[in-house]
């Protein structure tokens, strides 16, 4: 993980609507060749969210500029019985915004939101190989659960 340099931008988690949809979808194209296979396109994630009552998703804005995307599965449902609890299903920070501490700060915002709702743990998973976010999650305190979900290593953050 690249260390943050300089002051952190003002961050917001905004709803995705017709005004910002294309900008948020275009963020996927900014990822490196190594990162692209690790992250499903934002357009696919947004489409999937429209077919589930258990998905909460937002655009990440840094100083009023689209800079990322996150999608959280809010709990067990009949379509995904393998998920044990709140699950960070999709998370990406656009390449131009990487290395500025945005990813860490956004996950802090998410943890604050979940804490206010009585949640005390967050699961996610990642693939291995070039471009893997394993080090990023490890640095934030996520720990392996020992489970493999669809070929990805599951980790959990407890607070």
TrEMBL record:
GO molecular function per UniProt: acyltransferase activity, transferring groups other than amino-acyl groups
InterPro entries tied to this protein: Acyl_CoA_acyltransferase (IPR016181), GNAT_dom (IPR000182)
Coiled coil region boundaries: none
Domain N-acetyltransferase: 11-159
The keyword Transferase belongs to this UniProt entry's keyword annotation: yes
Record key words, sorted: Transferase
Superkingdom in the source lineage: Bacteria
Listed name of the protein: GNAT family N-acetyltransferase
Native source species: Nocardia brasiliensis
